[in-house]
Amino acid sequence: MDYDVLVIGGGHAGIEAANGAAQFNLKVGLLSMPGVALASTPCNPSIGGVGKGQVVREIDVLGGLMPVIADRAAIQVRILNESKGAAVQSTRFQVDKDVYAQVAAQIVGSISNISIIWERATSISKADNVFKVILSSGQSVSSKRLIITTGTFLAGKLHVGDNTTSGGRHGCDSSDGLSDLFSSVKTLPLRFKTGTPPRVKKSSLDFSKMVIQESDPRTENFSSLHPLRDRFLQQVPCHITHTNLDTMTTVRANKHRSPMYNGKIKAVGARYCPSLEDKAFRYPDRHSHHVFVEPETLDGESIYPNGISSSLPVEVQEQFLRTIPGFEQAEILVHGYAVEYDVVDTLELDQTLQYRAIPGLYFAGQVNGTSGYEEAAGQGLIAGINSALAHLNREPLIINRADSYIGVMIDDLVTLKRDEPYRLFTARAENRLFIREDNSIVRMGPYRRSLSLNEHIDRHIDVYLQEYDLLSSLVGTYVVRERNNSRLSEIICSHPDGALTALENFLNSIGAKFSPRVVAAVAISTKYSGYITRAEQESSRMLNLGEKRIVWDKVLKSPNISTECKQRIEEHKPSTFGQLKRIEGIRPATLVTVASEFL
Amino acid sequence: MKMNTGPIIACSTCLQSNAGLAVIRLSGFDSLSLLQDFFSADISKFLPRKQIHTNLLDLKGEILDDVLATFFPASHSFTGENVLELSVHGNIIHVERLLTHLTNNFGFSLAAPGEFTYRAFKNKKLNLSQVEGLDLLLSADTSFVFDQGLSQLTGELHQLYLELHQSFKKLVASVELSIDFSDDVGEEQAHSLFSGYVAEVKAKLSVLHRRCSAPIGSLLEPSIVFLGAPNAGTSTLFNHLLGHDRAIVSDVPGTTRDYLSESLSMNFGRVRLIDTAGIRAGGEAIEQEGIKRSRQQISHAFMRVLVVNPFDEMKPQFSPEDIDLVIVTHADVAGFDAKFSQFKNNCPNVPLVLWGHNESFYGPMGANSCVGPMGAIPFVAGPIEPIVYFSDPLRIISSLADIKYQSLTNSSPILIARQRELIHKLYSSFLLFEDLSLKEKDIAVLSSELAIILDISQELIGVFYPDDVLHHIFNNFCIGK
After folding, report:
1. In chain A, which among 29-68 make CB contacts under 8 A with chain B?
2. Is residue A333 within 8 angstroms of chain B, CB to CB?
3. Which of A413, A466, A481, B374 qualifies as a FRET site for A557, CA 20 to 30 Å off?
4. Considering the domain A454-538, what is its CATH architecture?
5. What values do phi and psi take at A130, rounded to 5?
6. Tens digit of pLDDT for each residue in B171-191?
7. Each residue of B5-28: pLDDT tens digit?
8. What does CATH list as the number for A196-338?
9. Rounded Cα–Cα distance for residues A162 and A429 (Å)
10. CA A44 to CA A96: how far, in whole Å?
11. Which runs of consecutive H residues, i.e. helices, occur in A206-313?
12. Which residue of A has its CA nearest to B172?
C-alpha cells in the first residue's frame, strides 16, 4: 500500500499526527503495535494539569482529538491553582482509561482516510524520497512522509528489582527493529527513564483514612465544541493520603535493591517527576509526601496511587505500600516498574519536528524525550499537520513561543540541549500572563485559520472571534456614566469580586448576551492587559535583543568565547540572541561578548 | 565604540611633561619574534614576566634607547593577550618617536582611550564592575575613592551583587515552585519559602541601599564652592585663600561672570575651590549664563560656603540647609558690629566666621570684640559647632571639610553612579513588589513583576546592559589604560 503520510505508533502523539494529516484529505496510514489499544494511558490516567491543561485547549483549537476524548472519558475533574490567578490556572481530568481508549478507537476508526494497520514494523528504508516499511506479516507499505511516534518502545527495557526485560511497557514488546534501522538517526548519548507506581486493588483500601476530593462541577470541558460543563460519564471522587517515616524507612533500607540507586539503571528520569526512591534519597529529611489515590476506571478495581512510582522489587513495593494510611491491607494488581529507552536528539529536528538530515521523516512524542500525554499529543498534531502541509507544498505551521505552550515546548525541544525528560510547566513560558486556558481561541484561532480548513471547529472559531472582538472593543471604549464616567475597563480591573463578576454584572445590566467563554476571556484579558503592557515595556530592551539575529558560525570564531560554550552553540545553532540565551550552560560572559560584539 | 582589531600600542604613563621614565605598553601581537629587529637582545631569551635590560634599535640598527622590557605572554597578562611593557626614558619627543617607529614599521595601531581595559574586559580578565572600579581608581582624587576603586577591582562589591542576585533567583524559584509544583511541595512550604526569600532579598538589598543613600554627589571630585550675592566679597576671599590674585576683584557687582576653580590639598585628598559668579536676578545675558553655570557647580558641591557682606542690601537666595559655613566679610570695616547684629538673627544655623581683609583685625581687640555678650570665639581645633568664630577661614574650612568627608565616607557609600542608580531602582521596585505581594493573590502577576526586577538585578551584575552603558564606561578612560 502507498500512503501520503504514514504514522508509526498509535499512542497520543500517533493518533493526533494521523488525524492532523487526515484533515487535509490525504491518505494516511497508522501503524500500531498489535495488542496495544490506541491512545492507551499506561501512566496515570489523567489529562491536563498545570501548563498541560493549556496545551489540551491549544490542541482543541488546532482541531486535535485529545480534548474531545478527554471530555468523554472524564470521571473526576478539577481546576488546579484556582486561587493563584487565571494565568496559571489549569484544568485536570481524571479519565477512565478503558473509555478513553474506546473513544479514541471509535473516533480514529470513523475517519475514512485513515487506515489502521495492526502490525509491527520490522524494517524501514528510504529510496527515491520514499520510505518503505516492511511489516511483521512480510507485506510492505510505503509513504513519502513518515512520522515516528513510538514512545518508550525504542530499545525499551523494563526494570523491577533485579528483573530486567525488554519492552516498552508492562506486557508489551519493545520496537527493537527501529533502533537497529535508524542507525543514521542521532539519539542522545544517555537514555531516559520513566516509571509507574504499583496498581492496587480498590476493595483492599480503606478510604475512610484518606481525604476525599470530589469532582468539581464548575470545571469546563476541554473541547470548545462540547457543552460548557456537561459531563459524559458519572463522576467519582479521588482521595489523598501521605507517606510517612515508616514508608520512607522501608524504601531507604532497600537502597541496594533499587535499580535506580544500585547502578543498574543508568538512564535519567525527570527531576520534576520523582520516583518514591528519588524522594527518599534526595530529601532524606522529608518523610511525608502526597499520594493521590486515583481510580483508573469508573467501575473497575484498579487504583493508581499517584506519587509513589517505584522500581523496587515486588515484595518491597508491597511492604512500603502497607505503611501508608488506608493502604494497610493493600493488594497489588500490577507492580510498579521503570522503563528506560532511547531518545532522539531533538536538536536535529526543525520547528516542524522534521529530522533535518532526512527530509520527510518526523518524530513526535515521548521518543523525543518528553513526558506526558499532552506534550506527546501536541507534538503529534504539529508533526501531522506539517507533514501534510509539506506534502501539499504549503507553508509550514510554526507556532510562536510567545503565543502558546506548544510553541514553547517545540522551541525548547529543538534549541535546548537536554539531559532529562522534558516536562512542560508554566515557568518555561516567558509570556505566561498571555498564554492562558481562557483565551486559547484568541491565541490559536489565527494559526488554525491559516490552515484554510472548513471543519466544525473552524466555524466555531470564526463566530467566537467575532464575538470576542465585539466585546473587547466594547470594554475598551465604553464609559459608565453612573460611575463618574469611569471607563468600563477600569471598573473591571478594580472590582473587588474579580474581573469576571464585574463584566458579567455589567452585561446583565445592559441586557447584552455573549457566550460565557468570550466573557471570561475578555474579562481576564482586561485584568492582565496593564501588567502585560508593563512587562513588555520593561523588558523591551531584552526582547529586542532576543529577536536580534546572530550568525552562530561567526560567533564560533570569536576568541573571547570558551570552548565549552562554543560546543553548545555549535550543537544548538541558535539563530537569534534569544535562542542563545535559552541554551542551558551558556555563561553570562558569553552572552556579554555576543551582545557587545555580534549584535 | 571604535576599537582596533590588531595589535595596539600606547604610552601608559600619560606623559604630559618630560620625566625620568615612561612606560610604553604593546598588546595583541601574535608573536614576540616579530619584534626582534626592534631589540639588540635575542628576543627568544625573553622569559615570561622577567625584566630584560636591552637596547631599542631603529631600522638601521642604530640605538634608540636603553630600556627595561617585560614580556607577559597571553593569557597571563592584563589584557589577556601577549603584552610587552617597555620602561623607556621619559622625554616626550622621544616617546613619540618610539610610538611612531612601532606604528610605522611593526603594524601597531595607537590604542583608543580605554582600549587596554576594553580588551581585558573582552577577554574576561575583568568584569563590568571591575572595569568601573578601575575607572574609579585611576581617576580618584581622594584616597577613599581610590580604595573603593580597588575593592571593585578585587571584586568585593561584585561578590555582594552576585549574592543579591542569587537570592533574587531563589525568590523567583519559590514563586515558580508554588505555581507548578504545589502538589509536590505543599502550599504551606511553598509559602514559607516565599516569605523567607522575600526577607533574605530585602535584608541584602537594604544593606546595599544604605550604602547608596548617603549623598555622595560630591565625593568623586570634591569641590568647595563659594557663593554669595554679587559684590559680597567671594573673590577677595578666594584670592586670600589661594594666596594670589586669581580672581579679578573690583567694586562693580557682577565682576565674576563665570566660575573660577583652583586645586587645593586637604588632609583627605585634593579638592577644587570654586568661586562662583555672584547670583542675582537680571544682569546681561553673559552674566546670566555665568550664573547658570555657577548654580550647577553649587548643586554638585561637596561643601558650600556662603559669603555675606553685611553692608550689602541684596539678600542671598539660598535655603539654609544647603550651606555648610557662612563667612561674613568686611569685619574690619567701621560700623561692622551694628550691621552684623542686624543681620545675625537671619543667618542659617551653621558655623559663622567673621573675616576682614585687613590682617590687623584679628585678635581679641579686633572688630569682633563687641559681638554678643562674649564676642566671637577663637577657633582652635576639634568639632565645629554652629556658633560665631573668628579665625583664618582656611583653617575652619579645612576642619569642616575633614569632618564632613569622614561622615560621608563612614557608611562606605557606593560611588559608581550606574550601580547606585540600579540599586535605588531595585530597592524601590522591590518595596513595591513586597507591598503588591501582600495585596495581590494572583501569583502570575507577582511573578511577572518579579521578572522585571530580576532583569534590573541582571543589569547590576553586568550580564545585560544597554549598548550605551559600555560606551559610556570606556569613554571615561584615557589613552594607555
Report:
1. 50-51
2. no
3. A413
4. Orthogonal Bundle (1.10)
5. -120, 130
6. 988 888 888 887 777 778 888
7. 788 988 888 667 788 888 999 999
8. 2.40.30.260
9. 40
10. 10
11. 245-253, 276-282
12. A427
